[in-house]
Description:
- Helices cover 78% and strands 3% of the residues.
- It has a single domain (2-313), classed as Rhopdopsin 7-helix transmembrane proteins, CATH 1.20.1070.10.
- It is built from eleven helices and three strands, in the order αβααβαααβααααα.
- It holds the Pfam family 7tm_4.
Amino acid sequence: MERKNQTLVKEFILLPMTTVPYFQTILFIVFLILYLFTLVGNISILAVVSMDRRLHTPMYFFLVNLSFFDIVYSSTTVPKMMIGLVQEYSKISFQGCITQIYFFHLFGCTESMLLTSMSYDRYVAICNPLRYTIIMGKSTCFQFIFGSWVLSLFYSLTHTILTSRLPFCNINQVSHFFCDIKPLLKLACTDTSLNENLVTTITGFMGVSTLSLIFLSYCFIGAHIYKMRSAHERRKAFSTCTSHLIVVFLFYGPLVTRFLRPTTNDSLEQDRQSAVLYTVITPVLNPVIYALRNQEVKRSLKSIFFGISRQKLSP
């Protein structure tokens, strides 16, 4: 009888980052600037690699895909977060909430697999440079991307379907600035131990397996660099890996701690804080890290920029 008297939730209320009006205004401006930089920076990389044939290599093929995922990954959550800073309540329908969960985990999982593919690309380029173009051909690159999409699709669908089948009654205030699985599980009016175990198990497996493959790639890379006799060659090989390692650290660091923590009120608050790193900060830093540390990208940017400038100045 109690179950019959409960009202099923048709929409959720997302909590803002802060309820202080002054800080809301500041955060909105900061996040808006960072989001615009994310779009401009990653779109610039997409344009540069597309326009410069010298960059049509496997390394930049993966970089283009990383820039694309940074755009869509950030766009899944940041606009809704900014709306919550300018409105008293940020509402989202049940269907919209489930859709956001689906795309958030789809793009996030695909990006993690893409970073794993990029580590293998660096391994082949450093440890087997003479066969690099043969091993990392177009078909191999497309197989990596296609495999990442397919596995991420099943991963995201598993979490989305299980979450969408839960009953949500009466309480509809999500302790987050976007819809995610753990905050929603706290609102379900049924036992969610199975869902919590699956989230920890599946996400933990994906995180550990991809991180292990990245770690294994860099173990072989490190061993190969150690055997190099030339200090110049060692520095050159190490510099090609630094950007990728920084991005891996920024992406995996908060995600691993987030999903491996038990679901408590304190952990949910920590999740809200760490989510800013991988939804706002990391997407805006990725193009900066790769563009500023990559001489080929900087040369292409300059040549394209000055080429457009000359065309405008010429009669």
